[in-house]
Design goal:
The chain is 13% helix and 32% strand. By secondary structure, the protein is mostly beta strands. Strands 1-2-9-4-7 form a 5-stranded antiparallel beta sheet, with no helix packed on it. The protein is globular, with a radius of gyration of 18 Å. The relative contact order is 0.22. It is found in: Secreted, Extracellular space, Apoplast. It holds the Pfam family Cupin_1. This is Cupin type-1 domain-containing protein. GO terms for molecular function: manganese ion binding.
Length: 179
């Protein structure tokens, strides 16, 4: 009874470039989901604009509740996802270089990334996701930036490196590029 047109609208300005200068990874993800448009509730869709600085990336991450379809609007992106196949102990990388107008699909729950290989020209993409609340888990942030920290003994063994390397990684500032 209290629903109106504003529940299905947002002046999101997705046509405007976003700042990538402040991001350590050189990208800015502008997600429009049910938190910004209440009318998306139960509809199973959301959208994001991703801006990439030259040599910027949207680092390896996963969406636990959504498949993503990405379209390059400007520039070039190297993209990929890794399968998880415990039976064959094979984590296969599926990757492509995408140009303006190209489309790539990242299946739900799989670790994926996008990287702008051009050192001079930014890139822009639009992603559609199959959930009104897809979630995003950036792998490095989750593993090395958890609070409280995962034991360096656990991570050193898992990554088969010295504990000093883990300590250094955990000391880095792990930022979120999703705004």
């Amino acid at each position: 009874m209290d629903v109106n047109a504003d529940d299905f609208f947002k002046a999101a300005m997705l046509d405007k470039p976003r700042d990538t200068e402040k991001s350590k990874v050189g990208s800015n993800v502008t997600l429009i989901n049910v938190m910004q448009i209440p009318g998306l509730n139960t509809l199973g869709i959301s959208i994001a604009r991703i801006d990439y600085a030259p040599l910027g990336e949207n680092p390896p991450h996963t969406h636990p509740r959504a498949t993503e379809i990405l379209t390059v609007l400007e520039g070039t992106l190297y993209v990929g996802f890794v399968t998880s196949n415990q039976a064959n102990r094979e984590n296969k990388l599926f990757s492509k270089v995408l140009n303006k107008g190209d489309v790539f699909v990242f299946p739900q729950g799989l670790i994926h990334f996008q990287f702008n290989p051009n050192p001079h020209v930014p890139a822009v993409a639009i992603a559609a996701l199959s959930s009104q609340n897809p979630g995003a888990i950036t792998i490095a942030n989750a593993v090395f930036g958890s609070k409280p920290a995962i034991s360096d003994d656990v991570l050193a063994k898992a990554f088969q490196v010295e504990k000093g390397t883990i300590d250094w990684l955990q000391a880095q500032f792990w930022e979120n590029n999703h705004y």
